[in-house]
């Protein structure tokens, strides 16, 4: 079992969710938000998520975005990591996939430098698609506090618990 924290909710502070109609901010199949080409092995691309015309995401005052991330036609077993641009790449996976699959996952990502998030493809190459579906905005009494992905549980190597997942409950 693996768990990565990307944010938390508090009684005070933070920001509120602004739900949006899905808006495509990235599609490497046709050149939206990045060149029209597969993202290669070990490659990182930075994607603008704030102030994108038509998206509904404000240019400023955005702490995090809600994205539906899709991989299309990956060439190898791999994983994708999404994190705030300008921060160090975390040891976390936002999406895991195998060759030839089209796989999607909902991701909440803290916004980084220049209103961007970074996407890292570990192995092989793949097309990437990202649709923004909401954002957490500041300026109102809020609840959500975004953080860079942080590994808090990995039973493979004892992070967070020495227990291996099996028939007994896992206690964090």
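Q: What amino acid sequence fits the structure above?
A:
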């Amino acid at each position: 079992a693996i768990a990565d924290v990307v944010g938390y909710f508090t009684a005070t502070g933070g920001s509120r969710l602004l739900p949006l109609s899905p808006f495509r901010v990235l599609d490497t199949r046709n050149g939206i938000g990045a060149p029209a080409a597969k993202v290669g092995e070990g490659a990182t691309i930075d994607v603008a998520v704030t102030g994108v015309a038509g998206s509904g995401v404000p240019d400023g005052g955005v702490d995090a975005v809600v994205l539906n991330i899709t991989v299309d036609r990956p060439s190898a077993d791999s994983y994708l990591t999404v994190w705030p641009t300008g921060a160090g790449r975390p040891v976390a996976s936002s999406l895991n996939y195998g060759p030839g699959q089209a796989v999607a996952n909902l991701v909440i990502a803290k916004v980084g430098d220049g209103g961007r998030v970074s996407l890292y493809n570990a192995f092989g190459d793949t097309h990437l698609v990202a649709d923004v579906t909401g954002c957490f905005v500041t300026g109102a009494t809020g609840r959500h506090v975004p953080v860079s992905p942080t590994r808090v549980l990995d039973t493979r190597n004892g992070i967070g618990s020495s227990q291996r997942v099996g028939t007994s409950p896992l206690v964090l």
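Q: And what stands out in the fold?
A: The chain is about 0% helix and 50% strand.
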